[in-house]
């Protein structure tokens, strides 16, 4: 295979998009959490009351990283840990009402970020690009598991 730069470009995209997204959140008055915490909140806004292992799968964050982030988010009042009534050994992560209320503001900023991200892309290019990214993720997850 020829020498490629895809991984390098993906790293740059991640770094740049994290900084821009953080700035957009701040401009919209959302200073309560950072970009990686936003990924956790995004998952919980889609489906609340999830076990840590499920959040880890959906965000691709390592369980150890996730646990320390959840500690900080709990101290900041964004989430609560609750025991699963069906399995006392399992802890479920639930959004607080205050954080649940931030969903609409976050979605507005997220949509703005998507517009910036895909500026000058056709719908077909977006579809193809996301298919390729999904294939890369799938390839890497196979190796990780």
Automatic annotation (TrEMBL):
The keyword S-adenosyl-L-methionine does not apply. The keyword Transcription regulation applies. PROSITE patterns: HTH_MARR_2. Pfam families: MarR. Residues 1-138 form the HTH marR-type domain. Transmembrane segments: none annotated. It comes from the Bacteria. Keywords: DNA-binding, Transcription, Transcription regulation. GO terms for molecular function: DNA binding; DNA-binding transcription factor activity. SUPFAM superfamilies: Winged helix' DNA-binding domain. PANTHER family: TRANSCRIPTIONAL REGULATOR, MARR, TRANSCRIPTIONAL REPRESSOR OF EMRAB OPERON. This is Organic hydroperoxide resistance transcriptional regulator. It comes from Clostridium oryzae. The lineage of its organism: Bacteria, Bacillati, Bacillota, Clostridia, Eubacteriales. The gene is ohrR.
């Amino acid at each position: 295979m020829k020498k490629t730069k895809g991984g390098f470009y993906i790293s740059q995209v991640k770094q740049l998009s994290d900084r821009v997204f953080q700035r957009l959140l701040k401009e919209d008055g959302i200073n309560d959490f950072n970009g990686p915490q936003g990924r956790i909140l995004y998952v919980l806004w889609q489906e609340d009351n999830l076990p840590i292992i499920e959040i880890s799968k959906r965000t691709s964050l390592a369980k150890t990283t996730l646990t320390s982030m959840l500690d900080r988010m709990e101290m900041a009042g964004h989430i609560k840990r609750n025991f699963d009534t069906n399995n006392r050994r399992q802890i479920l992560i639930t959004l607080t009402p205050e954080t649940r209320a931030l969903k609409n503001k976050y979605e507005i900023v997220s949509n703005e970020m998507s517009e910036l991200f895909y500026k000058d892309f056709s719908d077909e290019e977006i579809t193809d690009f996301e298919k390729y990214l999904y294939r890369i993720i799938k390839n890497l997850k196979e190796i990780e598991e």
